[in-house]
Amino acid sequence: MDEHEDGPLGVVAALVRSAFLVNAVYAESAREHGLTSQQGQLLCVLMGRPYGMGELGATLGLAKSSLTGLVDRTERNGLIGREPDPRDTRAVRVSLTGEGARLAEGFYAETCRRIGELPSGLGADERAALARLLGRVVLDNEVPVVFPEG
């Protein structure tokens, strides 16, 4: 446990407060790029490849109706498009448009920079240990890749 002004900080409080910190940075970066946090997540996921709606919903942890609304709004903004799935004529695949790819790259780079600054008070060995430990937590809990490795 680390000792701070507000008392000892255990693993649960540290993880929850870290999540709030990262979410705030993520949301600020998204706003500055004219996106919502969920649109930013969607664009980052799609940077790797097109996704079917089912796997996109599972990756983002969204119900079908919420995902449909998110995809509709982002498509109206010209950032993503739907195309028929060549393996299933009833399904569609969602992919970035050229404009969406450019915006995603800028958003991703800026968000990586900002989040990378959060542990600036740590030394190289501490940063490596933090990455290793958080990486284990993420992998042990099978967290989907919603933000690719920088």
Terminal CA distance? 29 Å
Count of alpha/pi helices:
6
Helix/strand-derived category reads alpha+beta
What are the segments in which pLDDT stays under 50 over at least 5 consecutive residues?
Answer: none
Strand order, main sheet: write it out. Answer: 3-5-4
Report the portion of residues in β strands. Answer: 15-25%
- Could you give the count of β-strands? 5
The backbone outline, from C-alpha atoms, is elongated
Rg is 18 Å
Q: Write the element-wise H/E pattern from the N-terminal end onward.
A: EEHHEHHEEHH
- Estimated helix fraction: 55-70%
The major pleated sheet works out as: 3 strands, antiparallel
Average pLDDT for all residues: 92
Could you name the key traits of this structure?
150 residues, alpha+beta, three-stranded antiparallel β-sheet, 6 helices
Brief characterization of the structure:
This protein has 150 residues and is an alpha+beta fold. It contains six helices and five strands, in the order E-E-H-H-E-H-H-E-E-H-H.
